[in-house]
UniProtKB/TrEMBL annotation, chains A, B, C, D:
Biological classification of the source: Bacteria, Bacillati, Actinomycetota, Actinomycetes, Pseudonocardiales
Catalytic activity line of the entry: urate + O2 + H2O = 5-hydroxyisourate + H2O2
Origin superkingdom: Bacteria
Similarity comment text for this entry: Belongs to the uricase family.
Name assigned to this protein: Uricase
Binding site for O2: T57, N239
GO molecular function, one term: urate oxidase activity
Entry EC no(s): 1.7.3.3
Pfam families, per database record: Uricase
Binding site for 5-hydroxyisourate: T57, F152, R169, Q213, N239
Keyword Oxidoreductase part of the UniProt annotation: yes
Amino acid sequence: MTFELGDNQYGKAETRLVRVDRGGERHRVTDLNVTTTLAGDLTATHLTGDNAGVLPTDTQKNTVYAFARDGVGEIEAFALRLAKHFVDRNAQIHRARVKVEQYGWEPIPATGHSFSRAAGTRTASVTYDGTTAWVVSGVQDLTVMNTTGSEFHGFPRDRYTTLQETSDRILATAVTAHWRHSGSGRVDWGPSFTGARDRLLTAFAATYSLSLQQTLYSMGQHVLSGDEGLAEVRLSLPNKHHFLVDLEPFGLDNPNEVYFAADRPYGLIEGTVKRSEAPDPGLAWW
Amino acid sequence: MTFELGDNQYGKAETRLVRVDRGGERHRVTDLNVTTTLAGDLTATHLTGDNAGVLPTDTQKNTVYAFARDGVGEIEAFALRLAKHFVDRNAQIHRARVKVEQYGWEPIPATGHSFSRAAGTRTASVTYDGTTAWVVSGVQDLTVMNTTGSEFHGFPRDRYTTLQETSDRILATAVTAHWRHSGSGRVDWGPSFTGARDRLLTAFAATYSLSLQQTLYSMGQHVLSGDEGLAEVRLSLPNKHHFLVDLEPFGLDNPNEVYFAADRPYGLIEGTVKRSEAPDPGLAWW
Amino acid sequence: MTFELGDNQYGKAETRLVRVDRGGERHRVTDLNVTTTLAGDLTATHLTGDNAGVLPTDTQKNTVYAFARDGVGEIEAFALRLAKHFVDRNAQIHRARVKVEQYGWEPIPATGHSFSRAAGTRTASVTYDGTTAWVVSGVQDLTVMNTTGSEFHGFPRDRYTTLQETSDRILATAVTAHWRHSGSGRVDWGPSFTGARDRLLTAFAATYSLSLQQTLYSMGQHVLSGDEGLAEVRLSLPNKHHFLVDLEPFGLDNPNEVYFAADRPYGLIEGTVKRSEAPDPGLAWW
Amino acid sequence: MTFELGDNQYGKAETRLVRVDRGGERHRVTDLNVTTTLAGDLTATHLTGDNAGVLPTDTQKNTVYAFARDGVGEIEAFALRLAKHFVDRNAQIHRARVKVEQYGWEPIPATGHSFSRAAGTRTASVTYDGTTAWVVSGVQDLTVMNTTGSEFHGFPRDRYTTLQETSDRILATAVTAHWRHSGSGRVDWGPSFTGARDRLLTAFAATYSLSLQQTLYSMGQHVLSGDEGLAEVRLSLPNKHHFLVDLEPFGLDNPNEVYFAADRPYGLIEGTVKRSEAPDPGLAWW
């Protein structure tokens, strides 16, 4: 009976980095949560504890901070710099993945150095194998709601079905979306992100929805159609159920006005929209 | 050896209520988390399990939903309606406290019925004893940062002091603030809230700070000075530490640019600012 | 129009301290989360930013770690040492409160130095004003369930009541309990805690319950009756509702077997049980 | 420019099910969090909102509750029943994955119907494609610590390395482990789980560790070696750093006694151990 090491990776998770750019009239705040993950020839440490190939996770953290000294810029570019460094400078490391979450801050008008936290998180993930870099941008914690324009009916019924069909329901979700760029060479990461995020919002709002899947597909299609540099997009949409409260026991009607917002369970709809001609990268890319 | 029942109360916590107002060009969403708490002559249920005086928490929840049928309006007014109902309709209930959290939603421009969640939470708490109603408005989860304009020095040093004095640090906090109204009869709850929230932000930004306590006092003073209907304000301000990263080991300087945002431990500064002439309500009011 | 500073305090929250005692056959782990809070003559820093009286929260953290060098022992004793230090060594500090959470670790039998985290958290809070020290011990995150032996009926009904009476329900709660010691001089903090915790569990289990309030009172009474050094106990008991699922639509009965465990809303029952002869300490002590 | 639907799935997440078995001297509690996920011929709902193939997530929830009526048993068996039902009864569904988390409850001795929550969570995941069922068992939230017996040195140093080598550190982690069974036909799910969990604990404790990777491999190997029905195991081990506090500024030494338990960042070590002869299932199985 013998055993062997399978897939493995390691890294430093959730390095919290805040950079302040103080040039210009108004300061700029870049508030990040960075996770670095390395894979490669790491058998020795698993089998014998020989760490000759294990770049410490502490060093990975230090590298994140040191690289920020020269400026961070767009998070896709920052992740690319880091991923290439780890692979190109460490022969035993064959793949690096750098994930970045960016928290938004809005100016408080009173000064040039005051900010308040905005909702929503921008994300980037770069995977680099020494030759190719895959860049994925995204958004999470973007919670949205349509108070009408959503139906759900025509579904199959079996012994366990009790759900009523509806032609007018609240549709609410917390969007997690990741879109993969065709290449890693573009420079307009910032406008590309803003555009994709805006199209997500607009498509969510403007799609008359017969199912959350239909909304998902529409959102994905709009993300891709507005940016030729994007190959595919993956969305994960929890259906944040809002149930109409039965007020009849109190002698009251409820013309789609009073709802109970439920926590659990929730529907979870996940799907991918791809540009038809896009080649398959052959990796779990989100 | 005898025992007796001391202070006690009970209620329904975190009833999640969403109301949609569908009149007008644009729908309006009111998204609330409501907690009701009752106190009074409740000895019997504690000592013998006689529930003749225990209005069920399930009934309290139902009442919240039923009252929303007529509209919610400003959360202070909604909490007043509920608190008065519970005390006035139940002889054995001598005090009701109704707490409401309101989550903000911003319109997505594409339609009249689409929204995205905004940061920050508005709160209201009403305490009613059958005669007087105390109304407290507030805000929580309002995270703010000044990237300069904050010093900290002149503090006492003892055997355990290692902190360096600083004349330029990041000051960041997540504001929880509660302000008590002098009476319960005002009708401008909405503008009053918006004004107080704006003054909190402006005071945080505009105060050149020698300590977070000084910023706290300034914030409180500005909240009160802009609204004669407010008697006192209590603030709870975690000091969200941002530590300058030492880049010297990497041959780099760090001119106040690269920071580590720490989670724990954190400073916690709490204080009250009162209008000097304001009478003491004699209750733990926040 | 003048303003003044009201109640205020400040401190360092959530200093995470782990101490390992390596003497003896088996190591001992003390895993704590310590919050220190000071109050006193702190007007200057609020009004002018003069920090001459502000013992930095960073120094408070350092003190926690330094005091742990001599051993921690029972958390009540550790909190007493810290609270007395802060008040006795700083003339401007008139009151210190030190709160400690202790996380339990159970030995893994294989070695003398291996442990796994157990459920439940032990707590202590000491308030010291230069003369008197109030010591409160407690427990939190102690989740318990009775699968029978709980009824709820005889409650008042009004227009908004829909709840059915029940003579057999699941009763589940996550216990938060704080009990105040009559003095601060006892030395058996450890056995006192273990005894109180055991009596809480036994009373919860053994009380045939007509209301969660009745269970609460019984739990409080048992805590006090087993330890003459305890003056009062305060309990906060969320009613973690378990609703019987209606399986009738699927042609199935449900003889009290299949439940939905709800998150929100939840009942929240809070109460105090006091030794009748116990003097009132005149402070919000929990 | 054309787009197409890529990988997609949907289901009901986090259905909270509690079942009480009341036969016998002592009641038995089965406390579950069930997530069902279906994939198949779902293009229509994405493209046109035609829901003829969309078994509602509400129906999936109902099915979970209805199936519990006949008893739950071991969670692997329960997940198998559900997964097979969804695929076998719905022609358009080609793959079901059912994930179950089980929360442990320990008896309170006083009665036969009283319980307290224990630490740690047991998990099961079944993936069924109409022909084959892959069964994965596991554990999460199992937090463990060795107070000695852990070194870390011999790692590469670069410009960004500041970490000191150590020959005695605390090693602490929160184990997430998933092990795949070779087949789906075994009946000893319960003893198999208990054995694997015990071997994880023993291997963690008994491995003298030169790296967390070495501990991971040892844990994986022990899980497999004790149960011939297991093909591979995947572990995800956050390195919960405990940093020795520098007490020298206070004139104190610190002989490996006083530590700061850090939250973020943390190392994250992930790896797979496989039986060498085990065929590759060709799916992301954990």
